[in-house]
Structure formats: structure tokens, C-alpha cells
Write a structure and sequence with these properties.
Layout: E1 18-25, H1 28-41, E2 45-50, H2 59-68, E3 74-79, H3 85-95, E4 101-105, H4 110-120, H5 127-137, E5 140-142, H6 145-157, E6 165-166, H7 173-185, E7 189-190
Parallel strand pairs: 1-2, 1-3, 3-4, 4-5, 6-7
Helix pairs in contact: 2-3, 3-5
Amino acid sequence: MSPVSGLNATFASKMACPGNVAFLSQSGALCTAILDWSLQEKVCSRVFISTGSMLDIGWEDLIYSLGDDPHTKSIIIYMESIGDGCSFLSAAREVALTKPIIVIKAGRTTAAAKAAASHTGTLAGSDAVLDAAFSRCGVLRVNSISDLFDMSEVLAKQPRPQGSKLTILTNAGGPGVLATDTLIESGGELA
């Protein structure tokens, strides 16, 4: 789906509003759920791409293409399998320097990996290795749909943060302390 051009080659009944976030998904149903949420929250997108089992095209093709698009500001991915790991990591490392790439990777557990294999017909791979690879190439990983939505909304509506310093404003002490822990554990620092 390309909201900018008005092309909808999906089974979704609604068109996304034109924006700057690219959504890539190996699940058409999840893609449609994200579309419904994005319309409600006014998170506008550049493209919605439901890849399925990715027989013809790899993540790297999509990442490089969106990396070259000056109107795409961030790339959000629902991934069940990585495919060609070296090619994905190479593309992600290059593009993540200028555009955030956020991935929710299904199949973190053995049972879920089996379910993912039955859905897309591919193996999920080692989650610990994937975590390290994502971290090394600058891919941001989330583990829940709500985190994916939150990250998407922030990237769509705010300028990209510069540097690792952050100011935390709060009307309560406890949430401020929890936010500080999360910031420091994630490699940030207080401004």
C-alpha cells in the first residue's frame, strides 16, 4: 500500500494517511491491525508492505529501497524470519545510520518459533544471536505490539533525538525513578 500514490494492492479496506513511517510485515493480518491503529492514532505512513514468506524479495531489498527514499523517516518491521542474515545486517547497518529501524521479532521461544515456521515456512533462528546482531548494527528491538505502536508514534510525530542525553519530566517520584532506570539501562544518560 502506498498512501502517497493512492495504490492499495492489499486486502485492507482502508487506505493509510500519507506520512513518513514505513511498515513492513510478514503477517498480512498484523499489517492490517497496525493500519487500523495508525488511522485511529493519526500515525501516517509512507508504505505498508506485507511480505508474506518473502520468496522473491528479501529484507535487504526493502531496507535499501526505503533507505534511499528521502520521504521515509523510519522503518518498522514485524519479522518472523530473517532470511539472508548477512544481507539483512549489512543493509540495516547502513540504513540505521540515518533512519531508525525498529523490529518486533516473533519466535523468541521454541514454541513460537515452531508456530512461525508453520506460518511462513522458515526457521526462526537463535534469539540471543539475533539480539546481539540487531544491537551491533543499530536496529532497535521491541518485544510487544504496544511497544511497536509507541515507538512508531514517537518516530512519526517527533524529530529524531540527537545524542544519548534525555531530560525526564514527571509529576510523581516513582515513575521518574523507573524512567531513569530504563534510560540508564538502555545506554542513555540524564541531561
